[in-house]
Amino acid sequence: MRETAARRRSAATPQAEPALSGSLVPLLLILVVISSVALVQSSHRARKLFSELQDLRQDALQLEEEWGRLLLEQSTWASPDRVQRLAEDELGMTAPDMRKVIMVRGYGKAG
Fold this sequence. Notes:
Pfam families: FtsL. By secondary structure, this protein is mainly alpha-helical. The chain has three helices and no strands. The chain has a domain at 34-95.
């Protein structure tokens, strides 16, 4: 019986509401919405940057492959046998007779 009387008294007396409770709920709601929008924008930006990163990695891979092909082509064009053949066939050049070669000393690395 005492419990029911105590319940009646507590139900009858209005509890004091905090002064900010009326403006706190809308403020928190606005903050939650702003936070949600920021999260969505952040996620979208992260996905977009990741996609761009994947594209750049693909481009880098293609450039590496092209670089390898160009190095191979350069070594082919600059091979000593090819240069000698072109010099003899297209320019009419011949290697000098070794008896007529004069070595010059004192210049560059040879000296």
